[in-house]
Design goal:
Length: 139
């Protein structure tokens, strides 16, 4: 059974690679030129939240009430100590329904939080990933 799964995986991935359109970055940086994207003309992009409502976001989740939970990684890599009180999870909201964030408050901030990379909100539990740990916080 394991050999079958291995062979199936190899065949699927190799056929996908053979059928994929080859694209080589002209600038060598791996950036995809904007003209390679097909964008629906009805799509609108706008800024919803900026600093000081949040700093250096690393991940986000949206709960059932429409609140946006954001992990911040100010102390990421060589910048550990930039925020001595630790990184945090902030909760952002648009309370007046004008399409812009107008409310921001920290959910948790601790010295032990150093560049958390993920957040997921389920019912009354917030899951926070900070490699190598997965932390569950009851709300």
């Amino acid at each position: 059974m394991h050999i079958f799964l291995l062979l199936a995986t190899v065949l699927i991935t190799s056929s996908s690679a053979l059928n994929a359109e080859e694209w080589k970055p002209a600038n060598g940086h791996g950036l995809i030129p904007a003209d390679m994207f097909e964008i629906d003309p009805s799509l609108e992009v706008s800024v919803w939240a900026t600093s000081p409502k949040l700093y250096n976001p690393t991940n986000m989740d949206i709960d059932h009430e429409g609140r946006v939970w954001v992990t911040e990684g100010v102390n990421y890599r060589g910048r550990n100590g930039t925020r001595p009180e630790g990184d945090r999870i902030v909760v952002l909201q648009d309370t007046d329904n004008d399409g812009k964030c107008d409310s921001s408050h920290p959910f948790v901030q601790e010295k032990g939080l150093i560049a958390p990379m993920g957040v997921a909100v389920f019912d009354n539990v917030v899951y926070l990933s900070q490699p190598p740990d997965l932390i569950a916080i009851l709300t």
